[in-house]
Amino acid sequence: MHFQYTEEQLMIQDVARRIAAEKIAPSAEHHDQTGEFPLENIRILGENGLMGIEVPAEYGGAGMDPISYVLAMVEVAKADAAHSTIMSVNNSLFCNGILKFGSEAQKQKYVRAIAEGKEIGAFALTEPQSGSDATAMRCKAVKQDDGSFIINGKKSWITSGPVARYIVLFAMTDASKGARGITAFMIDTSKPGFHRGKTEPKLGIRASATCEIEFTDYRVEAEDVLGQEGEGFKIAMGVLDAGRIGIASQAIGISMAAYEATLDYVKERKAFGAPIGSFQMTQAKIADMKCKLDASLLLTLRAAWAKGETEKNGGRFSTEAAVAKLTASEAAMWISHQAVQIHGGMGYSKEMPLERYFRDAKITEIYEGTSEIQRLVIARNETGLR
């Protein structure tokens, strides 16, 4: 493994860092307080290739590698986690699945608009009664004589659902087959039969709009089936592997922001006549924060490298992605917690961004597979037991 980034990787990192500093960070507090979707900033990210980092140029993307994606995601998440959530869904969950399983027509129609930041994409797997148990879904797609499908049902906790133009949807086409009875579809939200519920009031990542969506006799034509009928569960699990690298990167960005703010604070804040960073208990916290942060970054870069290798040579990178996501998300929660504690009352105040980092960090342990699910994935892959 090489520990030096390429010139192209550093370039995309610099682009992300510049946009994060000039556009995202100054507006982060406003978007967090209001919950307003940052459409203008997302357009800028798209115009600079950050909404389709791994998307080939012929489909409107930057045509770069998974390492580049991690570096860019970290920079955006460091400025504001909500922006990085939108970026992650567009890159990992939406574009990635279509590039791997979609037809040429689907790539041209759906990927280009999202990669260029002209439209917003979403990924609809979770339902009100089925979260971690995706095979318990009730949203149904009934095949018609002409090859089209009629969809009825609900999906919940859909990131970017309130603003998405296109959605990758998973619905049950044959309940008797269980996981093999799930099919993936491309959804155009401008068509009749699609309905959005209320935007969810969330603890963190508040500018990342989330809602329930519902389908009432929504018709999907045969050409908008993603992959093959019955392949939906396989597609979803493969896409989530990539998504977990995105969330690990987001967690690292949150951790970096909290850590760097704390490092500055312990050098300046004095108690009992000395900087609090000179106290052994504070130093122990700083050392542990640094170790967890570095471990998270290296494991996430390993997962991104593994993703790149499997794309060239085949195989899966499920374990590497789960290890990265589990480690980085729990590190983000711990580091942001310690950052608030070290800052004391100021860490608890909305006058500083520490409490936002703390609120934002929590979701990284939940979405795209909870920490409990990551542990199951890792253990099952290691033991071969189910």
From TrEMBL:
<dbReference type="GO" id="GO:0003995">
    <property type="term" value="F:acyl-CoA dehydrogenase activity"/>
</dbReference>
<dbReference type="InterPro" id="IPR036250">
    <property type="entry name" value="AcylCo_DH-like_C"/>
</dbReference>
<keyword id="KW-0274">FAD</keyword>
<dbReference type="InterPro" id="IPR006091">
    <property type="entry name" value="Acyl-CoA_Oxase/DH_mid-dom"/>
</dbReference>
<dbReference type="Pfam" id="PF02770">
    <property type="entry name" value="Acyl-CoA_dh_M"/>
</dbReference>
<comment type="similarity">
    <text>Belongs to the acyl-CoA dehydrogenase family.</text>
</comment>
<dbReference type="InterPro" id="IPR009100">
    <property type="entry name" value="AcylCoA_DH/oxidase_NM_dom_sf"/>
</dbReference>
<feature type="domain" description="Acyl-CoA dehydrogenase/oxidase C-terminal">
    <location>
        <begin position="230"/>
        <end position="381"/>
    </location>
</feature>
<dbReference type="InterPro" id="IPR013786">
    <property type="entry name" value="AcylCoA_DH/ox_N"/>
</dbReference>
<keyword id="KW-0560">Oxidoreductase</keyword>
<feature type="domain" description="Acyl-CoA dehydrogenase/oxidase N-terminal">
    <location>
        <begin position="6"/>
        <end position="118"/>
    </location>
</feature>
<keyword id="KW-0285">Flavoprotein</keyword>
<dbReference type="InterPro" id="IPR046373">
    <property type="entry name" value="Acyl-CoA_Oxase/DH_mid-dom_sf"/>
</dbReference>
<dbReference type="Pfam" id="PF02771">
    <property type="entry name" value="Acyl-CoA_dh_N"/>
</dbReference>
<protein>
    <recommendedName>
        <fullName>3-sulfinopropanoyl-CoA desulfinase</fullName>
        <ecNumber>1.3.8.11</ecNumber>
        <ecNumber>3.13.1.4</ecNumber>
    </recommendedName>
</protein>
<dbReference type="InterPro" id="IPR009075">
    <property type="entry name" value="AcylCo_DH/oxidase_C"/>
</dbReference>
<dbReference type="InterPro" id="IPR037069">
    <property type="entry name" value="AcylCoA_DH/ox_N_sf"/>
</dbReference>
<dbReference type="Pfam" id="PF00441">
    <property type="entry name" value="Acyl-CoA_dh_1"/>
</dbReference>
<feature type="domain" description="Acyl-CoA oxidase/dehydrogenase middle">
    <location>
        <begin position="122"/>
        <end position="217"/>
    </location>
</feature>
<dbReference type="GO" id="GO:0050660">
    <property type="term" value="F:flavin adenine dinucleotide binding"/>
</dbReference>
<dbReference type="InterPro" id="IPR006089">
    <property type="entry name" value="Acyl-CoA_DH_CS"/>
</dbReference>
